[in-house]
DNA sequence: CTGAAAGCGCTTACAG
DNA sequence: CTGAAAGCGCTTACAG
């Protein structure tokens, strides 16, 4: 069966397509008699009419879509929250958020052949090439772009580094002279983990502490060997890439018979539910997801309205002190 | 600046729009001279041409989009994996998967005004109304539909119930005569949690055990009171909605001074990294995400090709026995 | 081997 | 208050 179009509605309702459009879109400033309105709606309903998104977008010259591009690594619970929030905020402007899991190796350009979003939100920095291609295609780009393709710059990386620095300062503030860093063994997390580590090491340097080499700790298995090695090297505190890694360190300490936090202090990132009920409860870094989401939404709205983008919320992450450090 | 169109390319390259389309789409069966091909591509590149997805879709009568609709509740780590996988598999057919976090209250119909997917994958059952509206709009619907709007039927619910049943059988098999069920306190999880609970209670009945009333256990805080109540009522084993809830029960047992599993056995769902390194390591139910994703992809492909949909993988979830039960 | 033309389904000035 | 017509940008039969 062929698709039901607005012409079908018009014919069946005995009006023009113009009127159908006016009624179905509640176009302001036009007056259509109540009876006609009702008839058009009834017919549309009866025929199961669904307007063509493609035709709408083509004619209007824009869509109501915002695409959020997720990076090539496991994002963790924080990002899901963030996307939910973003969806809610943009919904109030009639926009729909669609998320693309950018795991495959295809070029983003291919995606834009399939969908024309009004704006794109990057949860990880875009390459300059991707960013300029999108801009030229008339898509608003929100989220950071690596200037010159070099990591380590931009708001996004800055905020990640801030997290690492927070961990270092907390641990140093508790009097630990020798820190370790437990990073992830997931290769996809490369640059994300790198930013947190970099912030951690910079802070160590600033504090006059030795900058540790990172140790890769797989999640879901007790990091017993790593804990023993640290213990042997005089390390009394370790910062982890995230809570899952921190939990693996905690389990390693348990296996190795090291008391936490007296013999080994541990601090994670994410403030996950599991971290809150660990033994001992995990000290961790919490990111203000709500504020981040609101900021992202504000950036999208600003870009669409041609206003200047608001500055990043500065005082974002904070240490949640619990039992482990 | 106005959008660059294929007409601009044609003009600049001194060819017709037909030729531009042939070259840029690598249309098979047409022969365009190598020189022309090169020139067209060069011009398109120089001008930063990006074809209009809307026009393409309108003309072709279909898009290359598959929208996955996430339900109104926190999905957990399993679903992220599943979506990544689905994205990969469908990419090999030139399809793009876009995820919609269906948290807002808007009708799905509104979404279809903004985007016309080829198919929609529901990670939770669709209402019959939504399903039929999508079908009438020419969208292939994959994933279960509630027949008559009643929960509890369909492949999806069946598989969720299987999880609850698995927990009950495992606990009963270990000789526990009196079981408890710890459900989530998240109101959004309503029917999802309900399906697991229903499966659990049915299995209890079949096994001749009393069917417990569920107790809501918030995640991230030790469920000490709940544990004490169970203990006082002679309960020696509890099944949890998921690992986060199970971890909260574990923490409650710790606080209440109950040894796990000897005084209280606990079994979760998800096989999360945190569960694997808990103290004691959590016994849990693992779902075969890869197989589920492959099945979902197969369903989409079958729907698009007009073939019959393959049956659900039957032997899905399994208990991973660790230290807690 | 290449081009002129039709048409996908909508919205919106414009004319009555 | 309502309708005829143009045009968004593409692809693809069709004609040369």
Automatic annotation (TrEMBL), chains A, B:
UniProt-listed PROSITE patterns: HTH_LACI_2
InterPro entries: HTH_LacI (IPR000843), LacI/GalR-like_sensor (IPR046335), Lambda_DNA-bd_dom_sf (IPR010982), Peripla_BP_I (IPR028082)
Gene3D superfamilies membership: 3.40.50.2300, lambda repressor-like DNA-binding domains
Descriptive protein name: LacI family transcriptional regulator
Organism: Isoptericola peretonis
Keywords, ordered alphabetically: DNA-binding, Transcription, Transcription regulation
Pfam families registered for this protein in UniProt: LacI (PF00356), Peripla_BP_3 (PF13377)
Signal peptide coordinates: none
Domain HTH lacI-type, residue spans: 4-60
